[in-house]
């Protein structure tokens, strides 16, 4: 036994992580259900470092130093359970199984409990950064027992992305917390992509700019507050020309965005936790709407009503869009961090929002300059009631607010859909409002269901006898 780590599941993610470990000097045992992938990896990249080729699970487990550390990188779901079962049968108490796939956090909670019963350590680790990150440094969000992080942490931290000398990897918390946090990360990614999409749509539909011009704007934005991986790749995508037609590539791609599920999971979990993640929800629904192709085709010709004139001051409206994007992005992150706080409270995880902002600064899809500000915000006040209330973000939104309103109003008057911009602004206005129409909602509930209400001027619960003399009674 001489390998410090084993990787099973050698599709694109597993292969790249195995190579990343090897490049960092670790001896890596390789395993895949079908040996062809193992051999393909060795043939193409065997020179990256020290690999141990294995065919069976028994050989694989025997190749590992104790306590054994195995990283599973298979398709999330039943395949993960099948692989865990096979490995657990061959491993010994104290060994560590890491699931680096995109598991649903409740599955991770279940698997961790079952393996703990058998004396094994199970670490559900969210890994972000796609194939490039896996190879050159991902952002890693490992949950599971703190003891296992002592043995595992140094390995994971060494292959993670590094920002200002800090690895983009830290122990997140018990059982499913790593996968939960990765799920919300992906939800934020959905919101971020939708917001960028809305900005792009406005450039085209409200300002009649072409993809190349818009690419230049995104390139410019990427040297300011919006600097981020997603803004950077947006410029690259918009600059791409289709070889076949000579048109911008984006114009020959079908406008139906697919989803694998983590955005949907985020929204489902937020619904259960009662946290409004409106930006993420709008992003998930926008993808669903884009994919309803038959319905959209049938809706062709629906009236738009009388539309306003397009903005004439292109520079001003461009700046308005930039501000709206920034402010909406702050809201999306604020909501995501609210969900993390709620998940932490629900499951007793004691999650540290500042740590998450720190490890998302590099390696992952949502990496952005902006995350330094979030890190600082939570360093200053770990109990911040909302990210929006941090002095820096509060003033950034104050600067952006007029532009943000102009963008949402103009889009509405031009018939251009901006669900995430608009719902983020509404969320902000609702958060700010000191009186909401919820008083009416609660009164209606009391009317039809005797659900009672609280009064602004007295303690206790009250009910109006709506179908009698409409007098008020105190509810027991
Ligand atoms: P896939 O998600 O496409 O999974 C393919 C791997 O799963 C192959 O190694 C395959 O083995 C193995 N596998 C399957 Br399918 N069923 C199996 C079973 N019943 N028993 C054993 N092995 C089985 O690979 P991926 O795209 O590299 O992603 C790996 C994980 O990482 C996933 O959970 C994914 O959600 C997550 N992830 C992916 C990305 C990304 O950018 N792609 C980013 C972050 C996280 P075979 O070769 O024998 O068929």
From TrEMBL:
EC numbers on record: 1.1.1.44
Gene Ontology biological process terms from the UniProt entry: D-gluconate metabolic process; pentose-phosphate shunt
Enzyme class name: oxidoreductase
UniProt: NADP(+) binding residues: 9-14, 32-34, 74-76, 102
Domain 6-phosphogluconate dehydrogenase C-terminal, chain residue ranges per copy: 178-467
Cross-referenced Pfam families: 6PGD (PF00393), NAD_binding_2 (PF03446)
GO molecular function, one term: phosphogluconate dehydrogenase (decarboxylating) activity
Top-level lineage group: Bacteria
Active-site residues (renumbered): 182 (proton acceptor), 189 (proton donor)
Catalytic activities: 6-phospho-D-gluconate + NADP(+) = D-ribulose 5-phosphate + CO2 + NADPH
Chain residues that bind substrate: 102, 128-130, 185-186, 190, 260, 287, 445, 451
Pathway stated in the Swiss-Prot or TrEMBL entry: Carbohydrate degradation; pentose phosphate pathway; D-ribulose 5-phosphate from D-glucose 6-phosphate (oxidative stage): step 3/3
Family of this protein: Belongs to the 6-phosphogluconate dehydrogenase family.
Described purpose of this protein according to its UniProt entry: Catalyzes the oxidative decarboxylation of 6-phosphogluconate to ribulose 5-phosphate and CO(2), with concomitant reduction of NADP to NADPH.
Subunit comment: Homodimer.
Name of the protein described by the UniProt record: 6-phosphogluconate dehydrogenase, decarboxylating
Annotated gene: gndA
């Amino acid at each position: 036994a001489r390998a410090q780590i084993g990787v099973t599941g050698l599709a694109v993610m597993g292969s790249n992580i195995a190579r990343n470990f090897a490049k960092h000097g670790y001896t890596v045992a390789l395993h895949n259900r079908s040996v062809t992938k193992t051999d393909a990896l060795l043939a193409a990249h065997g020179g990256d470092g020290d690999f141990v080729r294995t065919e069976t699970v028994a050989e694989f487990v025997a190749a590992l130093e104790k306590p054994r550390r195995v990283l599973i990188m298979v398709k999330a779901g039943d395949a993960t359970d099948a692989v865990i079962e096979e490995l657990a049968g061959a491993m010994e108490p104290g060994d560590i199984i890491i699931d680096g796939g995109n598991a649903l956090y409740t599955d991770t909670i279940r698997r961790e409990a079952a393996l703990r019963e058998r004396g094994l350590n199970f670490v559900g680790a969210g890994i972000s950064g796609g194939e490039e990150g896996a190879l050159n440094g991902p952002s890693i969000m490992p949950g599971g027992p703190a003891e296992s992080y002592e043995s595992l942490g140094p390995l994971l931290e060494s292959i993670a992305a590094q920002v200002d000398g800090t690895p983009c990897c830290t122990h997140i918390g018990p059982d499913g917390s790593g996968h939960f946090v990765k799920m919300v990360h992906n939800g934020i990614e959905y919101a971020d992509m939708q917001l960028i999409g809305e900005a792009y749509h406005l450039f085209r539909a409200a300002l009649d700019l072409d993809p190349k011009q818009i690419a230049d704007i995104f390139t410019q934005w990427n040297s300011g507050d919006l600097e981020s991986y997603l803004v950077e790749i947006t410029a690259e995508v918009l600059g791409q020309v289709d070889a076949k037609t000579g048109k911008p590539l984006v114009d020959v791609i079908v406008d139906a965005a697919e989803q694998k599920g983590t955005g949907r999971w985020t929204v489902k979990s937020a619904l259960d936790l009662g946290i409004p993640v409106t930006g993420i929800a709008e992003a998930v629904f926008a993808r669903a709407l884009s994919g309803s192709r038959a319905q959209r085709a049938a809706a062709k010709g629906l009236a738009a009503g009388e539309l306003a004139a397009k903005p004439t001051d292109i520079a001003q409206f461009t700046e308005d869009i930039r501000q709206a994007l920034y402010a909406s992005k702050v809201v999306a992150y604020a909501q995501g961090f609210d969900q993390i706080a709620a998940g932490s409270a629900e499951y007793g995880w004691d999650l540290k929002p500042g740590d998450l902002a720190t490890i998302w600064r590099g390696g992952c899809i949502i990496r952005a300059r902006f995350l330094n500000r979030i890190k600082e915000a939570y360093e200053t006040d770990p109990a911040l009631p909302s990210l929006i209330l941090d002095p820096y973000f509060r003033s950034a939104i104050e600067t952006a607010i007029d532009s943000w309103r102009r963008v949402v109003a103009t889009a509405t008057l031009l018939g251009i859909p901006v669900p995430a911009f608009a719902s983020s602004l509404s969320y902000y206005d609702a958060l700010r409002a000191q009186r909401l129409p919820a008083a009416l909602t609660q009164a209606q509930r009391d009317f039809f269901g005797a659900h009672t209400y609280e009064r602004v001027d007295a303690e206790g619960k009250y009910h109006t006898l709506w179908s009698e003399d409409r007098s008020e009674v105190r509810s027991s």
